[in-house]
Specification:
heterodimer, A: mainly alpha, two-stranded parallel ribbon, about 60% helix, about 5% strand, flat, B: mainly alpha, elongated
Chain lengths: ~120, ~400
């Protein structure tokens, strides 16, 4: 439907386009691209919100089902990854960023990651 | 047997003789151009997977097709495709005539003309693309939309320079920084400009690390470039499966002319994400992608026959293409700056320049520039959002232009 509307609007100008028509087409085209992607963005936000609330509900249900263990005990029970040289302390650095930093350092030093021991990673502000 | 007569016939049927007939010198220039393109592809690694094929296609067509000479042995026949597009000719839209009378490259070119290769390339691109960064940060779509500015500015510029609406639309799409989309749109609207447009599109995509950084530095402050962005949320498998279905439904309903490109892009992505079609995903990412790249490169190169390529129009297209690229980058950066201001400095405007498609080159440039400003900055995943949004954005821009001018 949208296609047909555009075709009929511009059919006369398809071959010989005046500068005014070209400017109008350009502005309209940019607006169509923008509005199309804005609507898609809204759709993605809506689906994202649905999934986030589902996740939150699932987490809450899981918490209710299993009583929380003392934090200290959990920490003590954390197993070492196979081949790892120990735990690393992170200060204001998310896990994923820390993993990325360690991978980059290993790559720059041309050493296997499991031969390096990172004691701590701290964000310098 | 008259040896002299035979030698004369051999000489007259050779390409060397054709260089001396009317317009043959143009083929020599195009052979030199193809050698330059081969150098850029092989030595400078400018999009080598496609540019080497395009350059060799260019070489082959200009070695075998001479406008004023015998074209029976040519690999590609410009005149056959002129007849194919001529409403009054008996071979109008007759692929049969191409199959009967065409050379090898004519037959391969049918895949370009019918829009098969660009769509199959999109199938592979979809299977190779992780839309996770976009799903976790849907605002990226705004940057992908903003970076289509060059498409429409170049379109307007092309009309001002005397191109028809169809030609201007095909030239403008170079600013989408998306080779298959540019080829797809041009074969439908202005097939006679396919050679220069495809070469300009792929050359500029390869030059992104040189074109974008000066604009990025010019339009952003050091403080803006230093911004470290927060990590986005983790996207669930189900969301990744639903995404291609939603996008395909929404975009194709909005602009049905985008169906071949967006449909293939999203089908490839669904194969990647659904987890039950690994074999298909692997095939379209590797084997099929490579096969189509072979056919696409060589047949696009074949459209650079000397008498069509060597014209003032080609120079205009090259200049307009560069303008389109620059303005697309500027559009993305400006909206990035707006988002920086609106979010109180949480978004690094450098990711805006990645809104031009060119996956993943443009995102890498954002990462490099961000890291130059702040060595602890990791913008790559944040820039991948606008980058893949740009692919959808340029497909929508192409769909709009196709709907208006077809």
């Amino acid at each position: 439907m949208f296609d047909n509307m555009l075709i009929s609007a511009a059919a006369e100008t398809a071959d010989e386009l005046s500068i005014g028509d070209a400017a109008l087409t350009a502005v309209f085209g940019y607006a169509v691209v923008f509005s199309g992607l804005v609507i898609l963005m809204i759709v993605l936000y809506c689906t994202g919100a649905i999934f986030k609330s589902k996740d939150a509900k699932a987490k809450a249900a899981a918490k209710k089902a299993a009583p929380a263990e003392p934090v200290a005990e959990t920490k003590a029970e954390l197993p070492l990854a196979p081949g790892s040289a120990g735990h690393v302390k992170l200060f204001d650095v998310p896990d994923k960023e820390a993993a990325m930093i360690m991978a980059i350092v290993a790559d720059k030093m041309q050493k296997p990651l499991n031969e390096l021991h990172f004691i701590s990673i701290k964000e310098v502000k | 047997m008259d040896i002299l007569e035979t030698l004369k016939t051999l000489w007259e049927s050779s390409g060397f003789h054709s260089f001396l007939i009317d317009g043959g010198w143009k083929n020599l220039i195009m052979i030199a151009v193809s050698c330059v393109l081969l150098y850029l592809g092989i030595k400078k690694k400018f999009e080598p997977l496609l540019l080497v094929g395009i350059a060799f296609g260019c070489l082959l067509v200009n070695l075998s097709y001479f406008t004023g000479g015998d074209t029976s042995d040519a690999l590609y026949h410009v005149n056959l495709w002129d007849n194919f597009l001529n409403h009054d000719h008996e071979d109008y839209h007759s692929y049969g005539a191409i199959m009967r009378n065409g050379g090898l490259l004519d037959i391969l070119y049918i895949g370009v003309k019918a829009g098969i290769y660009p769509s199959l390339i999109f199938l592979g691109v979809g299977a190779m693309t992780d839309f996770g960064p976009l799903i976790s940060n849907p605002k990226s779509l705004l940057l992908g939309a903003a970076a289509q500015m060059g498409v429409f500015l170049a379109f307007f510029g092309a009309v001002c320079l005397g191109f028809t609406g169809n030609e201007a639309a095909s030239i403008g799409i170079i600013g989408g920084a998306d080779g298959p989309t540019a080829i797809f749109l041009t074969t439908r609207l202005a097939p006679h400009l396919l050679g220069p447009i495809a070469i300009a599109a792929y050359s500029y995509m390869a030059l992104i690390p040189m074109i974008q950084p000066p604009l990025m530095k010019l339009l952003t402050t050091k403080k803006e470039r230093e911004v470290k962005m927060e990590q986005t949320r983790v996207v669930s498998k189900t969301e990744k499966i639903i995404f291609p279905i939603i996008v395909a439904m929404f975009v194709i309903l909005l602009l049905p002319s985008t169906a071949p490109l967006v449909g293939c892009l999203m089908l490839g992505n669904l194969w990647r994400e659904c987890g039950v079609t690994e074999r298909l995903s692997d095939t379209v990412q590797n084997a099929l992608m490579n096969i189509v790249t072979v056919f696409l490169g060589i047949s696009v190169g074949a459209t650079t026959a000397a008498d069509r390529f060597l014209s003032l129009e080609t120079i205009k297209i090259v200049v307009l293409g560069l303008t389109a690229f620059c303005f697309s980058t500027v559009g993305g950066l400006l909206v990035g700056k707006i988002m920086y201001a609106v979010t109180g400095g949480k978004i690094n405007p450098l990711i805006g320049s990645a809104g031009v498609s060119a996956v993943p080159m443009a995102a890498r440039v954002s990462q490099m520039e961000g890291q130059k400003a702040n060595p602890s900055n990791f913008l790559l995943m944040h820039a991948m959002g606008p980058n893949v949004a740009g692919v959808i954005g340029s497909a929508i821009a192409a769909g709009f232009l196709l709907a208006v001018f077809k």
